[in-house]
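Sequence decides. Consider this:

===
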Amino acid sequence: MSSHSVNGRVKTWEPSAARVEGSDLRSFQNWLRHHRGVHPAEVGGGLGTYAELHRWSVGCVDDFWESVWEYYDLVGDRGAGPVREGESIADTRWFPDARLNYAENLLRFAGSDPDREAVVGLHESRPRQSLTWRELEERTASLAAHFRSIGVRRGDVVCAVLPNVPETIVALLAAASVGAIWSVVNTDFGVRGVSDRFTQIAPRVLLTVDGYDFNGRYRDMTRGLPDLIDALPTIEHHVFVDTGGPSSEMPPATRVPSTRMSTIMSTPARPVYDRVEFSHPLWVLYSSGTTGKPKGIVHGHGGIVLEANKANGLQYDLGPGDRVYFAVSTTWVAWNMLVASMMRGATVVTYDGAPSFGTPARHLEICSTEQVSFFGVGAAVLTEIQRSGMSPRALFDFSKLDSILSTGSPLPESTWLWIHDHVKNDVHLGSDSGGTDIASGIVGSNPFDPTYVGELQGPYLGVAADTVDPEGRPVVGEVGELVMTEPLPSMPVKFWNDPDGSRYRAAYFEDFPGMWRQGDWATRRPEGPFVIHGRSDSTINRGGIRMGSADICEVVDTVPGVRASMVIGAELARGEYYMPLFVVPDAGFEVDDELRESIVSEIRSKVSPRYVPDEIIAAPSVPRTRTGKLMEVPVKRLYQGADPDAVSYTATDEPDTLRWYVERASAFARRRHAE
């Protein structure tokens, strides 16, 4: 459908009646009526709308999650215990008597549909890979048997430095099969970046790859292997993922034995799954680690299995007929979400090459050639394709593309409209918000409601999302802190090396007692959707009036001559406030008086004169984490006097850019000290 304005909101998409009636969410509603006895009177007016079903899901939390387990017929032992126990949101323990296994649930399709394609692997120069569900199960079983043969047991840690390739999925499933704890980072990390993450979790096994192509060049990953293993003193065994590239010969000798993945795969084994407690650790993800070492965030088997089925089935409407591609590296939680879509039988596509290899729209080209139906991508990637000036719909076939999930940061309105104009008009574009903390979404897509530019359709089912003022009181129609007032099964089971849970509670529950603070500024509209304004700890607060930094940069980035921007608001000593705007100019432009005047004019007219920056500074680039998030908070803290030596350059793949900001902040501090 074409976009049009409704009460000042621009509607860009609405599902057809057939799409709604054919959705898994509609099937779930009907199942609730017939199998759980949930009738319209119990939810205040009917189960016909998404809002009504959502009210029931957060008002009857235990019934909802029990229903998800039953509806998707999870593989495992439910046990006779309650759905949850615990006295507060912070100490909730889910399904205390249940036992199950993540890999066993995901690989159930090897039994029901063994010859259908499960995983596709794409590369810059290597041939296309394809694994059926049977082949995926067989390879998982072989690697799991190898892990057992070298003494890996439940609770041991298996870590990997691997790109987004099918073998990485096999390794995750094999580790989960034996009850081991999985952790992975992408191949663009140096030894220190890997060590900062892995030494704290004491892994016994390390998997690395021979090499891969990136932007037309082969990257040999074997040369640094001895240094990497020396930096990880607890490693006892190494698995060499040999892909047949130029460096696929056995890597240099190290202090630990090494086994080729191809050798392991040549030894058949019977699938065996260790059913573990619901909260048994599945994997360790990491905070951004912009200051100090990253925190290890631990999720459990059961919570991820439940959430993966709910999100992919009820929110994204995925099933065995879908083909899913996420433009991700393995470090980002979105890679875990890509694998999670297989819980509903979807075929997934992996890619380990450069995002602009051969074309600025390489990721969209993959969507076309692989006939992808669901595409997950960072908002910044879409904006970069938009800036290239191309119109992908004129070059590629998007006839099968039903949904795009944009995440990682708020999607600019101009990019939102560009997607409908230049990618596909009738596509369900969701700008979802969640994150590493819960390995899923908090607010975002559903298959029933229309979408409006700049708005997230609403909270996910089972997610009691709200916005509150500084005193914790709910607010509607104005900016507030995004919180959750009920627990979720996929909330972390713990932080690593946090035996008393104090770091975990401080991270999420200290600011608003009885609530999870997500750390985002959001507006809950009276109609139900949400608008995300950016991180609350990077908020611009001029004269007590708060503004999301993303709201300012979205306007600045539309000024001709501006390629990218970042703004911070730093509270300083003596009650002072400093608000610089960093601007990266387009090629052929300079941040001169003329461009500065244009920027100020746009901010005055489209945001407010209140948010005209104190200084507009030409910058070489804007610093981002490896998952594409702006590093506003660490830069802000530097300007507030944080120790420059505490900055972790491994948190970004552009350390020189971050170093520029460190030097700029240090010079600012010296000037203030001299005053």
